What does this fold into?
Amino acid sequence: MFWQNHDPSSSCSRQYMSAIFYHGEEQHKLAKSTMEKESKTRKVATVIAPAKEFYNAEDYHQKYMLQKHPELMEFLELKRGPELVDSYVATRLNGYIAGYGEKSDFEAEKDGLNLSDEALEYVRDNFKYTLNQC
It folds into this structure.
C-alpha cells in the first residue's frame, strides 16, 4: 500500500521526504525487501530509518485537504487542534477528499462515520469526482 499511494522517487526537503520509519528488526527487513522490489520498476528515493521521537505537524498541516472545506468542518463541528488530529472521521474524510478510496468504499462505511445528513450530502455533492467511480 505504501508504494502505491505516493511518489517514492521525488527528492524533497527533510520535512516532505518519502520515508519509512520502522519499529524493530522485522519491520526493518520488510521495509528493505519491499523497497528492493519497488526499485526494480522505478527510481526510489525513500529513506528507511528507525523510528524515534515523533512530533505532530503544525495545526494548519493536519487533515489539510479537509481543512480546505470549512463548511464540511462546520458540519463535523471540528476546528484545528487536538480534536481534529485525533478524529477518525476527519482522517477518513481527508483521504476521500484527496482522492483515495472508491465511491463504493465510502458508501460501505458512511453509516459507521455517523455523518449528519448535511455532511453526507456535502461529501457526495462535492467529491463525486475524487471518489473514484467503481
Remarks:
- The radius of gyration is 17 Å.
- The longest strand covers residues 19-22.
- The chain is about 45% helix and 5% strand.
- The chain has a mean pLDDT of 89.
